[in-house]
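Lay summary. Proteins are chains of building blocks that fold into shapes, and those shapes determine what they do. In this project we predict the shape from the chain. Here is one chain we studied, written as its sequence of building blocks.
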Amino acid sequence: MAKATNYQSEILDDLLNEIDPKEMRKTEKRMSLAAKIADCIKAKGWSKSEFAGKMNKQPSVITKWLSGTHNFNSDTLFDIEEALDFTLLPFSEKTATPTMSFTLSISQSANVPTSSVYSTNHPKASASLNTEQIIYGNQPAHC
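And here is the predicted shape, written in a compact code that computers can read:
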């Protein structure tokens, strides 16, 4: 059997460079999804034909799915998950972390007692600043 050789083509490189990065990520995700489905089928010990029978599809449809170019709809993915008894697309609930930002400007010439505490009591958040904790460079503040 002949050993494969590496082939460099400027035309191919130019074409690949023209692919939109967003489209490239979508294609990579489709390929990954197809590989995950193929791995599950193999883990079950099923052939493509057996899987096609469980999905009520023609084997050619399964081949298309496993090519990595098929754009699945959600119902098909849910049906595949059901047949394989495996979660292909895990959903995780993301909870928003409330944040509050503010800007504090302090100058060394400020006439502030060193033990002053500034605070705010917002209905959903609170913050305080003790001027003794402010450091300028490596030296504590002497406001």
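What the prediction tells us: The first helix runs from residue 10 to 17.
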